[in-house]
Specification:
The protein has 439 residues and is α+β, with helices and mostly antiparallel strands. It folds into two domains: 40-150 and 328-391, Periplasmic binding protein-like II (D-Maltodextrin-Binding Protein, domain 2, 3-Layer(aba) Sandwich); 152-326 and 400-437, Periplasmic binding protein-like II (D-Maltodextrin-Binding Protein, domain 2), CATH 3.40.190.10. The chain has helices at residues 2-27, 31-34, 52-66, 82-91, 123-129, 159-164, 186-190, 215-225, 249-260, 279-285, 298-304, 341-352, 354-364, 371-374, 381-391, 401-416, 422-437; strands at 42-48, 70-76, 98-102, 116-117, 142-143, 146-158, 192-193, 199-204, 231-233, 239-241, 288-294, 310-313, 327-334. The strands form three sheets. Strands 1, 2, 3, 6, 7, 8, 11, 12 and 13 form a nine-stranded mixed β-sheet that branches. α8 crosses α9.
């Protein structure tokens, strides 16, 4: 009995130490993982789409942290070429040790990523550290990537246009665009249409897949706000779409119908058509009152028209019961083919430390995904909006961004042109997305 009690005490002590070590290592408080004195050394290559200039201070901070033990070599890649170059590099055995990966590629490249087990970094530690949207980087057994920053969808608005129409605020709910709860419908006050049906000025860029920037993300936003997750991971790790399941199909149809109504000349909500410039371009000219875009586009809009009097707000919600937005999430992931896995693991964790994560977010002008930082107030008015959006951000498992964009585009355009009903379009999209998830 005495030996059994001794064994239990030793077992519990060791188990407790493992949990503490995992938690401290992840939080950046364990010297062995944060100072580079773990015995690991050499070069760690990192690929990402953020600019060299933005990441330079981050890399300098890491080099200072790890001294001469570990050297980080960062390569900036073109956003449109990142996926292709990564696949080609891995096929030839010349891939990076770490990648700064967007959520849209996590499902596609999961089998190439070295997952960190929850026995090393407890699931509870991860959940307490990062916002719920960052769960896109988790599997049933571990962590695929440590979250870094978010690039949420936000609502840009022309302050002069809203003032002329008598509005002191942006719509907080999608229904306020239409139902007149803000007074006369903003769609009618903010839209100008000539006798031939040409849209001269528009209230909001929604309705057509071809010239509405980020159409897939906006349609996904509408679906996610309804409570439909679009794709779920089953208990055995299989990804399945919920676009057309019995419980969720109605919500998908409602999202498609809501989006397409703005390009239907037969409806009172008509504010958009295919002859207009791309929505961000039109917003830059001052002829679009409301533009749904990414937080990272602020500087681009400013550069497009330095005299445009605009500001940023959170995207409208479906209702007051829950707040949901979507956008990009970025995390840092270690590749299975890493030539220096020990050092790569240290750098991967170091990126998630509060000091480095906060510095990274500040350099790229986007909100961090760490709860402890998001809970703090900020004097930056734009970042205050972005932080709120990051907390409410949800994503979905996109099997292939390029191909799913075609699927969503067909779903919207075939409904808009009347080729099929919204119900039929959703069913077809569901079949195609299911097929894509199996590849």
């Amino acid at each position: 009995m005495k030996n059994q009690n001794t064994f239990q005490i030793i077992f519990l002590a060791v188990f407790g130490i493992m949990i503490i070590v995992g938690t401290l290592a992840f939080s950046g408080y364990l010297p062995g993982l944060s100072s580079g004195k773990s015995g690991a050394s050499g070069t760690v290559s990192v690929w990402g789409t953020f600019s060299d200039t933005s990441l330079s201070p981050v890399l300098s901070a890491l080099h200072q942290k790890f001294g001469n033990n570990i050297y980080i070599q960062y390569k900036q890649k073109d956003t449109l070429r990142f996926d292709t170059e990564l696949v080609e590099a891995l096929a030839s055995g010349a891939g990076p040790d770490l990648i700064i990966i967007p959520d849209t590629l996590i499902a596609r490249h999961q089998n190439k990523i070295a997952e960190e087990s929850f026995t090393t970094t407890p699931l509870r530690t991860y959940l307490d550290t990062f916002v719920d949207g960052a769960n896109i980087f988790l599997t049933q057994t571990g962590i695929l990537a440590y979250p870094l920053v978010a690039d949420p969808l936000v609502l840009y608005y022309n302050k002069d246009a809203l003032a002329r129409a008598g509005y002191a605020d942006t719509p907080h709910y999608w229904s306020q665009l239409i139902d007149g709860s803000m007074g006369e419908s903003p769609l009618s006050r903010l839209t100008q249409i000539d006798e031939r049906g040409n849209v001269l000025e528009s209230a909001i860029g929604l309705g057509d897949y071809g010239n509405v920037d980020h159409s897939k993300d906006i349609v996904a936003l509408l679906i996610l706000q309804s409570g439909n997750p679009i794709v779920v991971r089953t208990s055995d790790g299989v990804l399945q779409t919920t676009l057309s399941t019995k419980e969720d199909k109605f919500q998908s149809e409602a999202a498609v119908n809501f989006f397409t109504q703005f390009s239907n000349p037969a409806k009172t909500t008509y504010t958009w058509n295919s002859s207009l410039p791309a929505s961000r371009v039109l917003f830059g000219t001052g002829k679009l009152a409301l533009y749904v875009g990414f937080a990272s586009e602020y500087s681009t809009i400013t550069a497009q028209n330095a005299h445009l009097n605009f500001d940023v707000a959170e995207v409208p919600q479906r209702d007051a019961t829950r707040k949901v937005t979507t956008g990009r999430l970025y995390g840092i992931a270690r590749m299975k083919q890493s030539k220096n896995p020990a050092a790569a693991l240290i750098i991967e964790r170091a990126f998630a430390d509060r000091d480095v994560s906060e510095l990274f977010a500040g350099q790229v002008g986007l909100p961090t995904l760490r709860r402890d930082v998001l809970n703090e107030s900020t004097a930056d008015p734009n970042l205050a909006v972005y932080n709120k959006a990051a907390i409410a951000l949800q994503s979905w498992y996109d099997p292939n961004p390029t191909m799913s964009d075609t699927i969503f585009g067909t779903m919207i355009q075939s409904t808009l042109t009347g080729q099929v009903s919204a119900s039929q379009a959703v069913d077809r999209a569901s079949v195609e997305l299911s097929s894509l998830l199996k590849k």
